Amino acid sequence: MVGSNKAAVVAAVWAIVVAVAGTAMAQNPKPIGSFANWQALTFQENGKSGCYTIAEPIRKEGAYNTRGRVYTLVTHRPADKKLNVITIIAGYDYKEGSDVSLEVGGEKFSLFTQSGMAWASDEDDEKIVDAMKRGSDMVIHGVSLKGTETTDTYSLIGFTKAYNAIGQACGLPQ
User: What is the total count of domains within the chain?
Assistant: First the structure.
């Protein structure tokens, strides 16, 4: 993706995230910057500011015929005291009751799923972010509603800079 096209896709993805997550009031995200494989953006939601960083996998594997867009986000909503919220958008609906495995630098985490999204528990969000800052790549394993196993690999190049940018934009201590 290039420049404004990438910004349009990121804005469209945010609209999907908001719709699926049930928050109807988030408004147009504004780009902060691009940091290698990661984009940093701000948004307004119910009159409150938030920030997030987003990336697509560098490799998607699985025996699927069609699949939607795949993303990982880390979101801050400081007014709601919600920081480091990890969200995975799979590009398909997960198998009901299944968990997602996320691996970074030898550390493994289990995420819960709902429809086409996965989240870490509140206590694991910060641990995952810390691992992402130290790691070079992140691998996510999931199973679709049809039973198709997928493996998505993300480069973490640029993650720390994007993460720091959203922290600064949201007024968090550095």
Answer: 1
Domain that holds residue 148: 3-169
Query: What b-and-e string marks burial along 76-115, b requiring 16 or more CB atoms within 10 Å of the CB?
Result: bbeeeeebbbbbbbbbbebbeeebbebbbeebebebebee
Please give the span between the terminal C-alpha atoms of the chain, in angstroms, as a whole number. 30
Q: What is the CATH number of the domain that holds 33?
A: 2.60.40.1880
- Does residue 24 register a pLDDT over 80? no
Banded pLDDT at 174 (limits 50, 70, 90): confident
Give domain status of residue 70, yes or no: yes
In a domain, 174, yes or no: no
How far apart are alpha carbons 87 and 83 in whole angstroms?
Answer: 12
pTM of the model: 0.84
